[in-house]
Specification:
Elements (H helix, E strand, L loop, with lengths): L2 E8 L8 H20 L4 E4 L16 H14 L2 E4 L22 E3 L4 E7 L4 E5 L16 E6 L4 H4 L9 H20 L5 E6 L1 E2 L16 E2 L1 H5 L5 E5 L5 E4 L2 E3 L15 E10 L2 E10 L6 E9 L2 E3 L9 E9 L8 H11 L4 E7 L8 H4 L4 H11 L7 E2 L2 E2 L6 H9 L12
Parallel strand pairs: 1-2, 2-3, 3-4, 7-8, 8-11, 9-10, 11-13, 16-18, 18-19
Antiparallel strand pairs: 1-14, 5-6, 5-7, 12-13, 14-15, 16-17, 20-21
Helix pairs in contact: 1-2
Bound molecules: manganese (II) ion.
Length: 420
Amino acid sequence: MKNQLIGLFTADWHLDKDPKRKRKACESLDQIVDYVKNNHVDYIVHGGDFWETKQSFGENSGVEYGFEYLQELAKHVKAIVINKGNNNHDYPQSISLLARLGENIFAYEYPISLALYDHVDKILGVDILRESEEETVYAEEPEFIVNLMPYPTKGMIVRDMSIDDNNKEFGEVFDGLMDMFGITNERYKCPKAFSFHGNVRGSRLSTGQPLTGQDIIISPLSLRKAKADVYAFGHIHNWQEFAPDMFYTSSLYNCNFGETEQKYFIVSKFNQTDEGVTVSSEKIKFKTVRPMVNVTAEFINGEFVINQEVPENAEVKIKYKIEEDLQDQVTTAKKEELKARFGADAILEADIVPVQRESRSVKIMEAKNLAEEFTEYCTITGRDEVFKVNGDAKTLKRSYREKIELIEQGTPPVEVPEEL
Ligand SMILES: [Mn+2]
């Protein structure tokens, strides 16, 4: 007996209404659609962070195109199984509702071991972690088992855990859960995939990826207790493998400036023989992904100077230093030169260096007009009497700046010209 089953692993789609994110996400999703149209794929497993943030229904959200792509993909595979990411991305109930989009779309927000049966007209999913053997209608071998372990929170696993309970205790409970997956998986000979959303010990973060909140870090050894054939992780956007059968799939596109990695989806071929299951996995590059690079520039002698190697296809944010009084030199034409070199979507950010004032007064920097600035200057330099000639305040005729110059030159009051 020799059977081959093909699974496609993807994660961290971060779908949202933001037009730039949407364009990038759609380009990569188009590639997955093309792939499943032109290559045999049995199942798609999504590792969580389907959404970027809580979505509202309606046109101005990620919901519409998220649903469309899911339904399109579901046409070309036997089933799609979706895991849940962090609450701040995948809002509670936002994943489970995806299951309503199609009979062959399975989506859960709790740990589950889903046995999938190919029954010609319909793919059936049975929760074998909870159903006892007697109750299981389909005692026969499933075609594929997908274990889902959503982003773990202490509350999800341990009730009434006090603030004093340490991570070790949590780790023991998590281990126990992994053992349960393992005991269940061992009853079956079919290929098994394990999807975990979270931080795995020893992983490298994506360079620009901010991780919010306190992450619970799970050891690869703990996860291995589940005895699956492939472990595909979501949460960290940087592709990496712990072993050929254990990897982060990476995200669809680069989200933040500083995130420069190539992104992938993974295609795993499970070969089932009488001796057991062997797997070979291949990572497939998303073609349109561009590194998001922070570029530092200076504006010297009327030209932008960049002493940094920037990859050809990079999406760049250029932060340039410019002295306050030289801002006029950064003309539209100069900015266009940069866009011609780095792409029309290059973002330019001026880092304005204020002209050095003589004074150390904060108030002088905040002056609303030259009169205020002048008054403050006179106050802090103790020269406010300078313009009183013979004890009488004189009408000021010259510009304030000229007067400041006179003061700076240390012109004594008696030498201040009469017209002051
Ligand atoms: Mn993510």
